[in-house]
Design a protein that fits this description.
Elements lengths: L5 E8 L2 E8 H14 L3 H10 L6 H16 L2 H7 L3 E3 L2 E3 L2
Antiparallel strand pairs: 1-2, 3-4
Length: 94
């Protein structure tokens, strides 16, 4: 039996129900972001809904996740997380 890599979740957006279909890994990333930022999935999606500027919600959510984790992958993000500093192509812990 083949399982779908996609999962559909029902989200409440300002009292209205919306279905969002995304890959399991993206839902895991949503869970991580919500845990780190002390948000519910519904609150995160409402925030993304307000900032989506004409994009569909699923695409806007993917872009928001990308930007969030990309900022964490910056030198400053690594420094705050205690991951070490980059020296050329070799990472060393400070």
């Amino acid at each position: 039996m083949v399982t779908s890599i996609f999962q559909t979740r029902n989200i409440n957006l300002n009292g209205r129900r919306a279905s969002v279909r995304r890959e399991r890994e993206l839902w895991e990333a949503v869970g991580e972001l919500c845990s780190r930022e002390n948000l519910s999935v519904h609150q995160l999606c409402e925030n993304v809904q307000r900032m989506r500027h004409g994009m569909g919600l699923t695409g806007a959510l993917r872009l928001h996740l990308f930007r969030y984790f990309r900022s964490a992958a910056s030198e400053e993000g690594h420094r705050r997380a205690g991951h070490g500093v980059r020296i050329g192509k070799i990472a060393a812990t400070a």
